[in-house]
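sorry for the late reply, my laptop died twice this morning and i had to redo everyting from scratch. anyway the thing you sent over, i finally got around to it. pasting the sequence first so we're on the same page, its 178 residues, then the predicted structure underneath. double check i copied it right bc i was rushing
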Amino acid sequence: MAETVRRASYDPYRNLNYQYDGSAVRVAQEEEDLQPQPRVRPRERELARPKVAVRPAGKVSLFAVTGFGAVAVLAVLILMSYIQLTTISNQVVSLNSEMTQLRGEEATLRARYELAYDLGAIEKAVTSDGSMSRPQAGQMVYVDLTEPDSVVLYHPDETTDGFWGSLEQIVGSVLSYF
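ok and here's the structure:
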């Protein structure tokens, strides 16, 4: 059979010594020394680092230097192409603004021109005094534009072809900024 263990109820005042002397302050006994004791820290163990053999410095390979040089040259070329793109974009914007300004001026000038000259009055004045006459049927010439157009270019622009020509253009454009 299982025995049940009986526990005593909790009594908080069971282990206290109640010797009240009438004062709330505890008086130290003569043999008690109430000096503070220094706190002793546990000694920390120092970490020992293992000695590692240092690898000797390697030599720089010619392939790595060539690769870094090629990357640097390509970076400069990309930078120069961005500079050219930016300048061309700025030129296009300025030319577009100039074109819109000129179109406005053209419309204004055409209106002023039409107001300045009355073509009907001018024709009437010139034909009435005999200095100008209408063309006769034999004086009229008709142009036939049914044939296809063609252009002959006698002095083509000189362009450099090939790798060396392109390289000269790149070097020239790079040097133009310095």
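Residues 62-116 form the longest helix (55 residues).
thats about all i looked at so far, will dig more tmrw
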